[in-house]
Amino acid sequence: MIDEKVINAIRVKPGKKVNLADYPTTWAVTPAVEKLSKKKAKSRAEDILAASRKELEAAQELLYASDTYAVLAIFQGMDAAGKDGCIKHVMSGVNPQGVQVYSFKQPSREELDHTFLWRCQKVMPERGRIGIFNRSYYEEVLVVRVHPELLDYQRLPPGPRDQSFWDARFEDINAQELHLVRNGTIVLKFFLNLSKEEQKQRFMDRLDEPDKNWKFSAGDVEERGYWDQYMAAFEDMLTHTSTEYAPWYAIPADNKWASRTLVADIIVNAIQSLGLEYPKVSDEEREANAAARRELEKEK
Asked: Among 11, 28, 221, 266, which is most buried by a count of CB atoms within 10 Å?
């Protein structure tokens, strides 16, 4: 388990204006962690990740058996922040039947004919399951905010597109997440906080390695040109939508081993904190089971 001081350092405090400069992008999250060598920190993180995977497997089975709560884990971040890899490594030991993963790309014409929340609402995880959103409705206050011309495709009623417009979207998001939490969905939100320098290196790696060429798009570099606008949009999003019931975690993403370990630990602790138990068998069911055993024992 990761020290609570580390988790507190990356949890975005509700009601406080966010400045991303206050959140590290590297593994040295707290002064105590920073005292460790990178080699030792990485080794410890890998041990914690291995243990968390085993605990997550058991926690997910209990979540499924109890059939009372669901978990929604949302991943947001710049291109190359490691969303795909984080999901893959953290969830690698979990029963696929208990996990639903959705990756949200450019909205379809049908999706554009509904409210901006609709395409995510229809795939929310059912009770007993873990839902993973690789990007989400938060794109509507990120990429759409950086490129407001995209609003033209949504055919919205006339009105101002100033700060009040985005504040209204934040309110809608918060209301939806409060509704989910009140009805048994645990909402965990991970902003993979990648530095501009590390993004450049990962883009270069994708260009240099033939097996990674497919992951690169020239459009990625074009979007990189809007870095400052994206950081401002992320800060406003984190400021207005990190709540007590659905907090954001600014996960340092420059070191993949650190981000994966932190995400796994947070998800495991969230499920374990629910105090779930396996369903109890009633007296009638116990008697029926005993009768079934006797029938099986009669068989040659």
From this structure: 266
Pick from 252, 268, 249: which is nearest to 49 by CA?
Answer: 268
List strands edge to edge, sheet with 99-103: 99-103, 130-134, 70-77, 185-193, 248-252
Tens-digit pLDDT profile for residues 59-99: 999 999 999 999 999 999 999 999 999 999 999 889 999 99
pTM of the model: 0.94
Would you call 253 exposed, middle or buried from its count of C-beta atoms within 10 A (0-12, 13-18, 19+)? Answer: buried
Q: How far from 19 is each of 144, 159, 209, 238, 251, CA to CA, in Å?
A: 21, 30, 35, 9, 14
Query: 228: pLDDT confidence band, cut at 50, 70 and 90?
Result: very high
Supply the pLDDT for residue 227.
98
CA separation, residue 187 to residues 31, 132, 220 (Å): 29, 10, 29
Q: Which DSSP state fits 139?
A: G
DSSP state letters, 200-268 = HHHHHHHHH-GGGGGG--HHHHHHHTTHHHHHHHHHHHHHHH--SSS-EEEEE-SSHHHHHHHHHHHHH
